[in-house]
Predict the 3D structure of the following.
Amino acid sequence: MAQVIERLMMDHDLGLVLLAGAICVVGAIATMNLSVRVRGGRRKALRLVFVAFCAGATVWSTHFVAMLAYLTNVPMTYELGLTTLSFVAGTVLIGIGFGVAIHGQGGRSAGLLGGAILGAGVVVLHYVGMAAVRLPGILSYQPALAVVSVAVSLGLGSLALGGMFGRHPGGAKSVGILLMVGMILSLHFTAMGAANVVHGVALGGATNGISRAGLAIAVAVVSLLILAFGLAGAILDKKFSHRRATEADRFRTLADGAFEGLVVHRAGTILDANAAARHLFGPSDTLAGASVRGWFEETDQAGADRFLAGAGDETLEVELRGSEGTSFPAEVSRRRILASDGAEAELLAIRDLTSRKESEARIVHLALHDPLTDLPNRRFFLEMAEKAISEVYRTGDRVAFLTVGMDNFKAINDIHGHSAGDALLRATGERIRATLRDGDFCARMGGDEFAILQTRVTSVTETLALAGRLLDALRDPVRLPGGDVAASGSIGAAFFPEDGHRMDGLLRNALTAMHRAKADGKATLRFFEADMDAALVGRRILESGLGRALSEGRFFLEYQPIVESRGRKAVAFEALVRWRDPELGLVTPAEFVPIAEETGLIVPIGEFVVREAIRAAASWPESLRVAINLSAVQFRQRGLVAVVRQALEEYGVPGHRVELEVTETLLVENRQAAVRTLRELKGLGMRISMDDFGTGYSSLSYLQSFPFDKIKIDQSFVADLAQNDQNAAIVRAILALGKSLRMKVVAEGVETMQQADLLEDFGCDELQGFLLARPMAASEIASYLARQEPARPTLVAVSAA
Ligand code: C2E
Ligand code: CA
Ligand code: CA
């Protein structure tokens, strides 16, 4: 080293040495500035050539200015071929060196290798350039020092490019520049220190050599070129860094616009976060430097650590704690990236799953609940029931299945409209829900049917208590926008395991019991019994056949005479509907009318009866009336009066030839509307009879609420009239009542002469019954009337019986 410095001081012109150093520094700056742009640029190869050229020119002119500074008293020339070769070969090697480093950017060894090649290029440039020197003397090298010069060049080159493009780029361009300057200068002067010139031996000037002056000019030109490169590099650098800033801005905008929270962290420590992440976890000043671990719930810490420590892309669904301490479901994805400081970091993308989870929950809720009442639906009920049953196998308790059917839903729906029906269902659902205890489960099964699952039943009394609460709750009038309506429900119950082992069977049995409860007067509870089944199956068959029967025209009428008690001559015929089914045979109205009333089919069936009966009456003698039974359900229909009026007009039958038979139930519900309709009908000239009088409600007030023309004493009083004094008393009372109200009284179900005579004695106006005639086909009426003419009706009754 001392030798090198000594040589430097002794053999060199200091001014020119400083100039060489300046050229070297400027060139290194220009080179490195250009080189960092190669990695970001598109036209990589062209930029690489520029870098190589700039670096080559730097080394070359540094070398030659330093040579100018060397041994100024020795006349030196340069051999042109070798001089050119030194530049070209050196530049190519330097280019390769940069190329390797830049191409393998980020790798462990590419920077080091590329740097070594760069160093080799500098070595070649120097030593080949030295070989071109022609001077009066012999040039030789001290081998040790020469080796040192080569090693230093390769080493510093490696450090320079390794630092700038290696695995852990420090971003240290300035360090790279310093190392490059150090490399060039130390090589040159160490190599020069290794050189020995033995003076006096004439080697002869080069024939086509470059003179000192020529060299000076060449160096000046190349130096200017380097300066130009440096300047261009600086300008580009500025533009580039501006572009980088705007690009960074753009990325920031983009990141902030992202819906996902984006967070860059290194080993758990937060470096950067976008707007969405700040929204989730708090403002940047609390985020920067904090740990992402704090976001994970304590219970998830182990999983969080595993996730954060993992390599490669991965996604995790976890509960995270937000800025307000509330936790939310999130999906976290992880990816390795290069952070803005150039070092590796990890990007976390955090998606808040709250709304997705909410909509998932909503979908599940919708799938398992009835939208109208928000009660669980049939599917949910069956799931819960299966679960309850499987539990019973362990505990040995019982499970009760209760089905609740509303008693008057159809009627309310018909009279008040669908929105009232919906309100009724909602109110019922709420009432049922309110009566349940822990462990009970209720659902709307469809229509006006609800079901309840009572688990852990140890005694039937528990089910009785629940049913009692339910019946009470359902009996309260329901408040509807149009006013209060009376409501009630019937309940059927079946037990697991006694009444079935399978869900469908149990549910069907509970339904059977519920229908039995309805048949037994409604608003009550029935437990399932095995023999209920048959009746119910029959009912189901009727239900499904009834609708078809209407469209297939399977209904027809029979007529039963009503006679004067005195002369026993027919004054009217009561129309009685019949259903003849190809499979079921003849079905009586007692069987199907109640079902038709429940399903609403009584309305079209009743319309058929009205038209058919009036059409038949048109062909009878003028003196004979036709009696038509009307169900209360038909009165809920607006069109009833119009239907009757139209039939009268169409068949030319005057109103006074028609009697309409109604029962008290008509007046029990919605009396005012019923009375209005009755008035309209009466206004058409028709008579109105109170049918089945004495049964049911039998409240005098019903009789007084409308001026009926006739009272029909129910056949149950007539049946044992002769044997039962109490019934005889009732019949006489009814007769007295009719007299005082100026209503005709007729007795039905007269089967014996004794009954007929008694009734006649009591003062009953008219009689009807098998004794007088059974219901007959329309076609039989003419011969019946003919036979009746002078003959006593009793004979007819005998022949008909
Ligand atoms: P209801 O209006 O009381 O009709 C009288 C019922 O008693 C008829 O039964 C008739 O056949 C029967 N009957 C007549 N005389 C005697 C007798 O001496 N002894 C006995 N044991 N029974 C007798 P039916 O035809 O089976 O009708 C049953 C009920 O069905 C009727 O009772 C009525 O409430 C209803 N119904 C019949 N036809 C119609 C109709 O067209 N519309 C409506 N809404 N209901 C009808
Ligand atoms: Ca009747
Ligand atoms: Ca009757």
